[in-house]
Specification:
The protein is mostly helical. Helices cover about 70% and strands about 0% of the residues. It has 4 helices and no strands. The structure holds prephenic acid.
């Protein structure tokens, strides 16, 4: 298997470094956007502010991605830090999306049909 770390080109100057980073950002940004779409789905399915943050799931994700990072020749501590920071952003976004969906008419759990 070609590890991710083995795909990094040796660079002679910062232009080459930045070209490499830009090429990866072209791949990363659409994936981050797609991931954010699942936060909207989660907000609607959970439909409860108290369920947005899920510590057990956060730990399960960390436990899954650390060995993946290691297998790709990366630094698992770095990837864990990035994932924890990223998930905090997605948790904020999930709260934001739940508030937006509620403003658009999503009824709080168990209150379908209740008068405001
Ligand atoms: O799996 C969930 O419950 C989600 O809402 C997604 C997600 C994430 O993957 O970023 C976000 C918030 C939770 O704390 C756990 C994980």
């Amino acid at each position: 298997m070609m590890r991710a770390i083995d795909k990094v080109n040796h660079c002679q100057n910062m232009q080459q470094v930045r070209d490499g980073v830009n090429a990866l950002d072209d791949i990363l940004v659409p994936l981050l956007v797609e991931r954010s779409g699942y936060m909207t789905q989660a907000a609607r399915v959970k439909n409860d502010e108290n369920l947005v943050r899920d510590e057990a799931r956060i730990q399960a994700i960390i436990d899954r991605v650390r060995p993946m990072a290691q297998a790709q020749g990366g630094n698992p501590d770095l990837i864990e830090r990035i994932y924890r920071a990223m998930m905090e952003c997605y948790i904020d976004y999930e709260h934001q999306e739940l508030a937006r969906l509620r403003a658009e008419g999503l009824q709080p759990q168990g209150r379908e049909g209740e008068q405001a």
